[in-house]
Amino acid sequence: MADALAQTQWHEPVHGLLSQSILAALADNPAAKGPEIITAAQQAVPAAASILTSGTMSEESGAAQVASFLAEELAIGDMEDAVAALRAELAQADRLDPQEYELLFESAVAMQKELAKRRLAHTSGGQS
Asked: Which of 7, 38, 80, 90 is the most exposed place for a label (fewest CB within 10 A)?
């Protein structure tokens, strides 16, 4: 999971900062629990708790499980932003040729389907 956090190109800079703080917390204490990781993240980003705790995690979750959950939480947020950007482009259909519009539309639909699957898996604890 650390590789996924480190290698992701975050759409939102704040998510990159959170990812770095999670990696640092886990490097300092590989057995860190959720509350410890979130507290460390808040030192880097004061709004970390509200960003990282929008889903559900047990206070006793292990470090790998917490890191995986938080990475998915951040990735879902980035995907939501990407879908919003595609929608904004589609809203300016008069500036697009029909083929470009169709490609953007298909991309938006595919991304929304993937986003829905990821949200479901994320909120159901990975059970889909």
From this structure: 7
